[in-house]
Amino acid sequence: MMSGLRHPARVLSLAIVLGAWAPASALAAGQSAHKPAPAQAAPATEQFVDGIAAIVDKEVITLAEVDARAVQVRRQMEQQRIPVPEAPVLRRQVLQQMINATLQNHEAARVGIRVSDAQVDQAVQTIAQRNRITVEQLRHEIANSGMSWDAYRADLRTQIQDDILRQRFVEDRITISDSDIDAFLSMNAGQPILAPSVNAPAPAPQPDAAPAPTGPELVELAQILIEVPDYAANSVVQEKRKQAEDILRKLKTGADFAGVAAAASNGPQALEGGNMGVRPLRDWPDLFVQAIADTPPGGLSGIVQSGRGFHILKVLRRGYAQPRPAPGSAAPAQAAPAPAASRAPAASGPMMVTQTHARHILIKTSKVVDDAKARATLESLRTRIEHGESFAELARRYSEDASAPQGGDLGWLNPGQTVPAFEQAMNALQDGQVSEPVKSPFGWHLIQVEGRQTKNMEEEFRRMQARRELMEGRIGPAYEDWLDQLRSQAYIDNRLEKTAGGGR
């Protein structure tokens, strides 16, 4: 339901926090400080006389573009204290990110996703408001970070586009049942708190220690992935395994995990030091759960083989959900709060909310159906509704949303449950009124308001938060699978990879 409307679970999350001005491939905090030498250009070869680093379908990525992006990534890694790999290695890692971005751009163009200047302006306003600064102050901070304002806006545009793609092709294909939510809520009676970071001293046991944790175990993981090509010969598989074994030996003798990940991992988080974030233990793949069963914070797994290749995992932090403290009681000493995405929902008393019962008809844009044609179709349908035809019947026949079989019925909607453009237009309607065609990131809509009511949403809010958390735990693997599908369907000539003697 509402496949084209749900507000993204992660909206510009990398740019919301003041200081995190990095692009979509922005960097998480690293493990150790390292001040590398200035970037050095890779040696010229005959293969690069034409200045081409890669060709993705029919689009060329030039060496100049790769080098410019590598300068930005190097600066970000230094700010996050992640050891920067040697220039040729950094080039290859950056190029792989650019190839993935190009594939997503092509997919967005194929399905007609276009991010307008107004959407970027709204994102800028949101970021400034959440950081409690003005847009002008935001521009000043961006300039101080070394990124131009135009480049920052371009990156926001890409992030918005990628969020829409994730919604359409990844999130909307993940099913979270009511029983999944019931089980999650039964295990999360309070607010989870992560155990101290591996570098923090553990608090001494106290006679009046807090009750034993009852919620799910939370684990923050980083990985190094050595990818194995599909249908690889046994000799290639053994070669990749040996590469993973060599890396594991280096790590066990003191090599910095984040630096090795940046230099050697084929995972999408390589330039983030391999950091994959925090999730409840049960939401990590079963292979990972088994591999780190007895691994303490700071510890390494052995080599884990999956369908993608060979993984080496590092447990950055692990801890448990704690029962919610009684009013007036202190939180456990030395505890660091978990990231927002890992906090279990907790009720906070009655939540009176005005809900809107709405229907809609969605016409998606594509190469065949542009904005003008989609709008004209909806204007024609609106005229037919004004002349007495049923909105619900026309929705069944013409809407391209999953709600079409229900006559476009979206049920009772809460504030914030739909994207801003849709919600703003819906809120302006009286009961029974039909909107003009409304553009959202997902296409064009006609909206009809059936009625409104005020309701205590305490329980619904808890379930909505639980659904969001479950989605966060599942979207990562699903997103990587989707990227793999895009790569397998595309023509990719990665010349840097060939030069390095690797390649898929």
From TrEMBL:
**Which SUPFAM superfamilies does the UniProt entry name for this protein?**
FKBP-like (SSF54534), Triger factor/SurA peptide-binding domain-like (SSF109998)
Query: For this protein, what reaction is catalysed?
Result: [protein]-peptidylproline (omega=180) = [protein]-peptidylproline (omega=0)
Pfam families recorded for this chain? Rotamase, Rotamase_3, SurA_N
* Chaperone listed as a keyword: yes
The entry's keywords: Chaperone, Isomerase, Periplasm, Repeat, Rotamase, Signal
Question: PpiC domain: from which residue to which, for each copy?
Answer: 216-317, 353-451
Q: Which GO terms describe its biological process?
A: Gram-negative-bacterium-type cell outer membrane assembly; protein folding; protein stabilization
Q: Which GO terms describe its molecular function?
A: peptide binding; peptidyl-prolyl cis-trans isomerase activity; unfolded protein binding
InterPro entries, from UniProt? OMP_Chaperone_SurA, PPIase_dom_sf, PPIase_PpiC, PPIase_PpiC_CS, PPIase_SurA, SurA_N, Trigger_fact/SurA_dom_sf
Q: For this UniProt entry, which residues form the secretion signal?
A: 1-28
Going by the entry's taxonomy, the superkingdom of the source organism is recorded as Bacteria
Work out whether the entry's keyword set contains Oxidoreductase: no
Write down the EC number. 5.2.1.8
Q: Where in the cell is it found?
A: Periplasm
Task: Please tell me one Gene Ontology term that the record gives under cellular component.
Answer: outer membrane-bounded periplasmic space
Q: Which segments carry the region annotation Disordered? A: 323-346
Assign the protein's first listed, main location to one coarse class. Answer: periplasm
Its UniProt domain note says: The PPIase activity resides only in the second parvulin domain. The N-terminal region and the C-terminal tail are necessary and sufficient for the chaperone activity of SurA. The PPIase activity is dispensable for SurA to function as a chaperone. The N-terminal region and the C-terminal tail are also required for porin recognition.
Q: What does this protein do?
A: Chaperone involved in the correct folding and assembly of outer membrane proteins. Recognizes specific patterns of aromatic residues and the orientation of their side chains, which are found more frequently in integral outer membrane proteins. May act in both early periplasmic and late outer membrane-associated steps of protein maturation.
This chain's protein is named Chaperone SurA
> What organism does the record attribute this protein to?
Castellaniella ginsengisoli
